[in-house]
């Protein structure tokens, strides 16, 4: 409270002094702040080297370039958070740039290299190592320490995946996983009262839906999020997609073949039509054509806005264990920010503030990364509450530089080829895993 | 013919008769009869040369330099690798050869099927548009309209129209009793039909307009003379229209080939290169390599190989359309 008040005060002072226009309004704001004399306020504006994070920013007005990829149902929530932040911190302006995640990881490193990138931003956990190795982002250990963040507050996997070569590069905001969406109407009509939790009940549900008139109750995508389904099933079977040390791809293991075979069988047994092109399973779900689909929990708001009556539940346990693919949005600070102590300090204030507000971020459909926030009623009662309760089942990709790009070129192609019926699961996986291993070897050489 | 120093000497020595003679050719060229400074043509060219040098020549040279390095612009070290990026393209064991040659193959398929259609269909449209009939301007606009849309619009639009399971195209095929389960975007050869078809629909307006301009340049007297000689419509088309369009056709062919070889957006947005990487064109492969994986050296090498192929193709087109002396 007092911190916020202090910030407000010095900012309003700055407005008052610097602008010299709208004196009446300025005086009013300054009056609210009260206390300091004009000279004090001016003197306080000097840049002090900020080696450690003090928790506040009293320097001159700075504009932080803030990049994120919240283009979906999560976008409005981030916009609101930024608005609230700038209302509280008038000496920190936020220039927000929202880029589709797909393009984000291409543009961001290039922009930072050119000095025109973000000062602060959000990125996925599995991209932290890549960008750390490229020296696009800088360690934030001090920030984590002063925020009082420790491993206990997060699940071990989320916490550790933010570490690359003994330094922490990301402050986790949330975790988000794959989940199962089902349409209420057709399920009721088919007499499904409980959501399936394992392979048998899942198949039984699909059969029930089939016999109640839905020819294809569960469409198997061939692209996104097909590879996330595959990874979930692979982990459920007890396999690992990549060697932990990032030296080779192991997704063509027996467990991997079984996972992909299951997906292909869904098509072959007629639960799904063939050749499901990108996004069509989701569009069809929204249109009420497909009663069950697996997608990311961040779609909650998109479905809510579209007025789709649905239920969210965890991915059933198809294999032996209860794992599901997940990722996490992390805040980072770029190399470009480190040249300006004011910006650096302001960026830390920004991350600190948003990290504390992550309960509100839960409205965007995400699961807050902080345990304390996750246990709050606000999150427990949210649609994603049941998923949040199973946070220990979430699996993340290992922090290996360049892995995201390798996966897009190999694993995703293998999954697509098998679900399109072009190749058998074993063939598709083994040829792409060989290629992935080769690429990983080259990355290893490149990033050291 | 002139080096930068010689003309200056000429200028200084201008009054001397010998120099006058030397300069005769330059002086004669200037219409006013006054002598032209050596700098004049260069000054006229300057604005273009600056742009050309900055945005074409310099990047070409810089690109060659990049292609000789293991070039990742986000990393401090960019080690010199000589011709390895190029030799890798011809080594089936390397990680770059596969995607690149698959891309070249996809590009070749697309070019072979799209170019003939993009030469013939717009010509037919142009010939019709060149007739006098009511609403001609409206039709001209209608055929040109898709061309003004960006590839992003075209790609997203057709991706949904052509979706196998939720697309309207398959829906209406089903309504009229045709197969309604055609995988337009996820299987070959259907995906090629879709990509070529959409590209023809999208860009035929541009070629048609160029043809139309060419048609309007053919003197009417030739047609009248042909009629007097008793030529029928086909004979007039064959012996007057086509020869009259030769320079235009040569231009259209060249531009269309270059555009087809550079195809990227349609498959990037509509098929994602699916099935597998079958519809991933060369430019697509280069983009993935250079901009997504930051392997700029490999990507640059790929670009130069593609450029070389394109240049050879252009030479072949020039040769085909050369003036033949009977």
Helix content of chain A: 40-55%
The largest pleated sheet of chain A is described as: 9 strands, mixed
Distance between the termini of chain B: 34 Å
Envelope shape of chain B: globular
Overview of the molecule:
The complex is a heterodimer of chains A (448) and B (326). Chain A is an alpha/beta fold. Chain A contains 22 helices and eleven strands. In chain A, helix 1 packs antiparallel against helix 2 (23-33), helix 11 packs across helix 12 (254-268) and helix 21 runs antiparallel to helix 22 (425-447). Chain A is globular. Helices cover 69% and strands 0% of the residues of chain B. Chain B is globular and about 75 Å long. Chain B starts with a helix and ends in a 6-residue tail after the last helix. Classes of the chains: A alpha/beta (448), B mainly alpha (326). Chain A binds chain B through residues 105-106, 109-110, 112-113, 134-136, 219, 222-223, 273-278, 280, 283-284, 287, 289, 402, 405, 408-409, 413, 416-417, 420, 422-423, 435, 438-439, 442, 446, and chain B through 70, 72-76, 95, 98-99, 159-160, 163-166, 181, 183, 185-187, 272, 274-277, 288, 291-294.
SSE layout and pairings?
The complex is a heterodimer of chains A (448) and B (326).
Chain A: H1 2-19, H2 23-33, H3 38-43, E1 62-68, H4 75-88, E2 92-98, H5 101-113, E3 120-124, H6 125-133, H7 141-146, H8 156-161, E4 163-164, E5 167-168, E6 171-183, H9 184-189, H10 199-211, H11 226-236, H12 254-268, H13 280-286, E7 292-296, H14 300-305, E8 310-313, E9 324-333, H15 341-356, H16 358-361, E10 367-368, H17 371-374, H18 377-380, H19 385-389, E11 394-395, H20 403-409, H21 411-419, H22 425-447
Parallel strand pairs in A: 1-2, 1-3, 9-11
Antiparallel strand pairs in A: 3-9, 4-5, 6-7, 6-8, 6-9, 6-10
Chain B: H1 5-12, H2 17-29, H3 39-67, H4 84-89, H5 97-129, H6 136-144, H7 151-161, H8 168-175, H9 190-217, H10 220-228, H11 233-244, H12 246-261, H13 265-271, H14 282-292, H15 296-320
Helix pairs in contact in B: 3-15, 5-9, 5-12, 5-14, 7-13, 9-12, 9-13, 12-15, 14-15
